[in-house]
Design a protein that fits this description.
9 strands, alpha/beta, Rossmann fold, Helicase, Ruva Protein, domain 3, 35% helix, 2 domains, two-stranded antiparallel sheet, 258 residues
Length: 258
């Protein structure tokens, strides 16, 4: 689709995919099982969109912020594809109806924000297939004990099953980025409640990873009573704790809060 125009286009830190085989593989990774609508985030010149439009999907929408890309999509997409001109990060997903699957070549500089948006809407989002910077993909899909295990690893892992699908060369983009990319898939798990104060859970996870080199007792000290006592997890570091252990820690903090 418009190769010369693709080469000229770059917005929001996005590098446009030009390899149709990779685009087809990304679209094929989307199962879209049990969802009522599929949303593509940041379609740009529509390389994924064309393959998505060929599938027998439920309601299909694209969300694009860039005006020039919107004009291009309106001229080149099937009239049945709904184009939402706006920012996915501020879009209210509730009115779109039912369960939602999200797919996209996510702009590097807002990919983490997109995943936090997914977390905020975990009651709606059933699946996510996204291409992101390789190190972001590795961080999200890592487990306890990994040096890249972090905040998103825990928070997404509480609500989604996460899979690192494949690595993507920088040479399939225009303009080529300086790093490799990767495609990951998130599938909503069966967890409805974590068994703790979920707002506090998020706060505890963020606080612990903001001081990840220190033992847990240091970042949580300011949250609890001076005589709160000890528990085994306090001698560990954030990167060593699983989701269930962070839940246990959150309940301990809740029981001993100032």
């Amino acid at each position: 689709m418009g190769t010369d125009k693709v080469r000229a286009k770059k917005h929001l830190g996005q590098h446009f995919l030009k390899d149709r085989r990779i685009a087809a593989a990304i679209v094929d990774a989307l199962k879209a099982e049990g969802c009522d609508t599929v949303i593509e985030v940041g379609p740009g010149m529509g390389v994924l969109t064309g393959f998505l439009a060929e599938r027998n999907l439920p309601a299909f929408r694209v969300v694009e912020l860039d005006r020039e890309s919107v004009d291009y999509l309106k001229q080149n997409l099937d009239a049945q594809t709904e184009i939402i001109e706006g920012d996915f990060l501020t879009l209210d997903l509730q009115p779109l109806g039912g369960r939602i699957a999200v797919i996209g070549n996510f702009p590097y500089n807002i990919s983490s924000q997109i995943f936090f948006k997914i977390l905020e809407n975990r009651h709606l989002v059933t699946e996510v297939v996204g291409m992101v910077q390789k190190e972001v993909a590795e961080r999200i899909c890592s487990g306890p004990g990994s040096r890249v295990y972090g905040i998103l690893s825990v928070l997404l892992g509480a609500w989604f099953d996460m899979e690192y699908l494949f690595t993507v060369s920088e040479h399939v983009f225009s303009p080529p980025p300086k790093v490799k990319s990767a495609v990951i898939r998130l599938t909503r798990n069966n967890v409805e409640r974590l068994g703790c104060d979920e707002r506090l859970f998020v706060a505890v996870v963020k606080r612990c990873f903001n001081q990840r080199r220190k033992m847990i007792r240091n970042p949580v000290r300011e949250l609890v009573q001076p005589d709160a006592g000890e528990m085994p997890l306090l001698s560990l570091r954030a990167e060593q704790l699983s989701v269930s252990q962070f839940t246990e820690l959150t309940n301990w903090v809740a029981a001993n809060r100032k």
